[in-house]
Specification:
With 174 residues, the protein is α/β, with parallel strands linked by helices. The chain is 46% helix and 10% strand. The protein has seven helices and six strands. The chain has a six-stranded parallel β-sheet. Helix 1 packs parallel to helix 2 and helix 6 runs parallel beside helix 7. The longest helix is centred in the middle third of the chain and has 14 residues.
């Protein structure tokens, strides 16, 4: 997490404005994700950030929750197109907040096109929240990938998510 904390400090200084952050497979934990979230919510770094890759880390619910809240409250209008949170032990608690951010009609809703959540611990509550966000029509999401999570197979939440994604033209991998 020390490397991500140093990156967060650089982002906070507004000395860098990356379009892509590839932080996958860097052993980023909740503290590192929280530091990154804080930087993203208090700097102008989001102005040009298009892709944020945090796959194969260990940010968990705490780190993902911090990111969701930061993406909701960022000063700068987000241009984030892709958010890759695969394989991070993210569960329903954080995903419900991320869905609220997507469905709120804010700038992230208007920019995020691809959300990758494979190999996490997303269950029925998270799927239901995502379905509601997509149903609201506030999101520009076009691709949602949720393979290898803990949804009830063939359950109501999965069926609703499939139905809403089909109606809204969102490509769903589940």
């Amino acid at each position: 997490d020390a490397g991500v904390t140093a990156l967060a400090d650089a982002l906070r200084s507004d000395s860098i404005h990356p379009s892509d952050l590839y932080l996958s497979m860097n052993k980023v934990g909740a503290p590192g994700a929280s530091a990154l979230a804080s930087a993203l919510s208090t700097s102008r770094a989001m102005e040009k950030l298009r892709r944020l890759h945090l796959a194969d880390n260990r940010i968990g619910d705490e780190g993902a929750l911090a990111l969701a809240l930061a993406l909701r409250s960022s000063r700068a209008p987000p241009s984030l197109r892709l958010l890759n949170l695969q394989n991070n032990s993210i569960g329903d608690r954080a995903l419900v907040e991320l869905a609220r951010t997507l469905g709120a009609g804010g700038s992230l809703s208007r920019s995020l096109e691809e959300l990758l959540l494979n190999a996490n611990r997303v269950g029925d509550a998270g799927a239901t929240a995502l379905a509601a966000a997509i149903r609201s029509g506030a999101t520009k999401l076009r691709t949602l990938s949720m393979r290898h999570n803990v949804l009830t197979p063939g359950g109501t939440a999965e069926a609703e998510l499939r139905r809403v994604c089909k109606e809204r033209g969102v490509k769903l991998s589940i």
